[in-house]
């Protein structure tokens, strides 16, 4: 609703406008919360063996088994007595946070008139794509909006930037924790090994994450140098991109022979989180106008937009009655019925104008000149 002085007028806000208004305040936080909830479900422990291996000491001949061996036997033979009392329900523990995340993501659509209408959503999607692709610095482009949103960093003090960078370290710690879990599962748990005290292998596996960070820094430096010395021709640049793409594809196919698809997905997520942390560091170092930083930020905004708009498009396509339900909730019966009638008339008008009318042309006979 918008105040006009003579009452209120109703307007459908486009998705690009909603994204500009709610991205930094709600959408980014909601996507982060959804990711943490999924991470909690994937890596969380909701039941464990509450008994000691001494309960079955005769089976092991009074030799302490490995943790994985005892956990497997405990779940198989002593589930009701040792495991079932520790069961915790993930849904009961996290449903309130899921409601908060869903509210932050999709409440603007529910309170937006015709927010679940299919035709309106298609128009919003096309407008959002044009907004992302526009490269000028106007307010109707992604570049202009991004520059306005991060402009405050230029006037921030050094202490404020340091505090913000410390807060953004949470992304690095999440990626590092996922990497440690992946390394432990791949090298120790799958091979039924235990971490030995003082083993150099564990320290080497822990340090590989820092090598990934150094690679990201090197990639950023190389990209900046290439941008400054872009003297070679476009054909040569395309050839380099093609060679790098082929090398990446070969590495991915070769890794499938050694690493499972789930582990590859985990590695991809770790790289995404590390790259997002690197992006945040670049922002607080006043590198907002760098071509690599802008390309990364635009890519993340495109993914966040798909996370938000994808379920709404699915609902509008397969559950169209929710659009009518939204109208019933937001407006009174008279306005809702009038809106439905206007839609019917607009469809009839569109169908009538789409018909091709053929006009017969009457050929005029030329007058003969005497």
TrEMBL record:
Entry's Gene Ontology cellular component terms: 1,3-beta-D-glucan synthase complex; plasma membrane
Pfam families associated with the record: Glucan_synthase
Domain Glycosyl transferase: residue ranges: 1-165
Keywords associated with the record: Membrane, Transmembrane, Transmembrane helix
Source taxon at top rank: Eukaryota
Transmembrane feature ranges: 21-43, 92-111, 171-188, 200-222, 242-261, 267-284, 304-322
GO molecular function: 1,3-beta-D-glucan synthase activity
UniProt GO BP: (1->3)-beta-D-glucan biosynthetic process
Protein name in UniProt: Glycosyl transferase 48 domain-containing protein
Species name: Phytophthora kernoviae 00238/432
Taxonomy of the source species: Eukaryota, Sar, Stramenopiles, Oomycota, Peronosporomycetes
């Amino acid at each position: 609703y918008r105040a006009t002085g003579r009452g209120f007028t109703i307007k459908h806000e486009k998705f690009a406008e909603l994204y500009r208004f709610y991205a930094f305040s709600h959408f980014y936080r909601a996507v982060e919360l959804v990711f943490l909830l999924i991470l909690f479900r994937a890596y969380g422990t909701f039941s464990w063996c509450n008994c000691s291996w001494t309960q079955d000491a005769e089976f092991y001949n009074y030799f302490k088994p490995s943790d994985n061996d005892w956990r497997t036997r405990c779940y198989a033979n002593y589930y009701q007595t040792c495991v079932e009392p520790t069961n915790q329900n993930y849904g009961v523990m996290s449903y309130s946070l899921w409601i908060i995340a869903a509210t932050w993501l999709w409440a603007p659509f529910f309170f937006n008139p015709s927010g679940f209408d299919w035709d309106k959503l298609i128009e919003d999607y096309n407008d959002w794509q044009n907004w992302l692709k526009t490269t000028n610095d106007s307010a109707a482009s992604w570049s202009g909006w991004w520059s306005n949103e991060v402009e405050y960093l230029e006037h921030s003090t050094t202490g404020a930037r340091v505090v913000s960078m410390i807060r953004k370290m949470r992304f690095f710690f999440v990626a590092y924790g996922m990497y440690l879990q992946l390394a432990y599962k791949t090298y120790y748990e799958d091979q039924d090994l235990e971490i030995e005290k003082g083993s150099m292998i564990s320290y080497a596996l822990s340090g590989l994450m820092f090598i990934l960070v150094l690679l990201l820094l090197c990639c950023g430096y190389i990209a900046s140098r290439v941008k400054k010395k872009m003297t070679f021709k476009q054909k040569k640049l395309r050839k380099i991109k093609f060679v790098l793409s082929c090398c990446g594809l070969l590495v991915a196919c070769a890794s499938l022979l050694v690493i499972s698809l789930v582990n590859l997905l985990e590695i991809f997520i770790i790289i995404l989180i590390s790259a997002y942390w690197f992006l945040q560091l670049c922002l607080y170092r006043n590198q907002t106008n760098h071509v690599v930083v802008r390309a990364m930020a635009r890519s993340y905004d495109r993914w966040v937009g798909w996370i938000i708009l994808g379920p709404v498009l699915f609902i509008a396509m397969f559950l169209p009655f929710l659009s009518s339900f939204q109208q019933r909730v937001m407006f009174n019966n008279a306005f809702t019925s009038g809106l439905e009638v206007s839609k019917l008339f607009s469809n009839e008008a569109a169908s009538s104008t789409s018909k091709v009318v053929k006009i017969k042309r009457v050929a005029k006979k030329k007058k003969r000149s005497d």
